[in-house]
Amino acid sequence: MTTKPRLRVGRVLLPGVLAVGLFGLMALIVLNTSFGGSQGFPESIAITSELGYAMFQLDELQSTAGSIPNTESFLAAFFLIAVVLDAALDGAIVLAKREEGGKPVVALPSQRDDAEPARSATGRETVADGGSDSTESVTTTGSDADSATDSTAAGNGNDDNDGDGNTGGDA
Amino acid sequence: MAVEVQYYVLLSMALFSIGLFGILTRRNALLFLMSVELMLNAANINLIAFAFYHGNLTGQVFALFTMALAAAEVAIGLGILLVLYRNFRDVDVTVPTTMRW
């Protein structure tokens, strides 16, 4: 069974009609305005290289014979945009950072987490692909940072006990 | 033969109106981002069309800068969307009301 798009009526109908009406009004104004012919660019000029020269303020490289007049240089704007993009990258990283218990959660930790020996000490293997182990139910809520350290201590205690038990079992 | 400039303006107005329609009627934050992109691209079409109309390259260079600004806006927007989903388990823009008014 296929579903076809339906026109939603109700609360969103009035803003939608407003947007369509705005297009109608603007189209009416534009179609009744005489713009005249376009000036266009000269045939002998490479537009792309001229764009590059204008962007990096390379005025002496711009073609002079039959050139495109009144093209401004945009070096300051280029650096401003570079700074804005850098700030946006930092902002996106800050927004996407996830913290649990006051410590940021990273996808590929460079150091072993303190909680990891506790898990392996209890006999459960660390899942290599980053998925959660099906045999344990670790609830990572924000308030269990203290309990995580407690379980670490408990896990270390269990580590000795398990090791003794295993060696005893082997002997 | 070059297309007359009024058809470029009509195209950009249609794109702008589609973006405005999306912003006014949708509640999904992803569709909001897409609609804002449509409106920014409408501005780009106007800039490039009038650069050709005046025989001047300033509009084309400025359109490049607008694209970079759109990329920055999308980066921040997707970050906000991540936080929105993390806090509310939803990307409906009408759900978070604590910063309203």
Provide a quick synopsis of the model.
With 171 residues, chain A is mainly alpha-helical. Chain A is built from 5 helices and 2 strands, in the order αααββαα. In chain B, 27% of the residues are buried.
Protein architecture, described:
The complex is a heterodimer of chains A (171) and B (101). By secondary structure, chain A is mainly alpha-helical. Chain A has a domain at 108-125 and 143-165. Chain A has five helices and two strands; from the N terminus they run αααββαα. In chain A, strands 1-2 form a two-stranded antiparallel ribbon. In chain A, β1 (98-100) and β2 (103-105) form a beta hairpin. The relative contact order of chain A is 0.06. With 101 residues, chain B is mainly alpha-helical. Chain B has one domain (5-88): Helix Hairpins (Orthogonal Bundle). Chain B is built from three helices and no strands. Chain B has helices at 5-25, 29-54, 58-88. In chain B, α1 packs antiparallel against α2 (29-54). The radius of gyration of chain B is 17 Å and the shape is elongated. The relative contact order of chain B is 0.13. The model of chain B has no long low-confidence stretch (mean pLDDT 92). The A-B interface holds A 8, 12, 15-16, 18-20, 22-23, 26-27, 30-31, 33, 35, 37-41, 47, 50-51, 54-55, 68-72, 74, 77-78, 81, 84-85, 87-89, 91-96, 98 and B 2, 4-6, 9-10, 13-14, 16-18, 20-21, 24-25, 52-58, 60-62, 64-65, 68-69, 71-73, 75-76, 78-80, 82-83, 86.
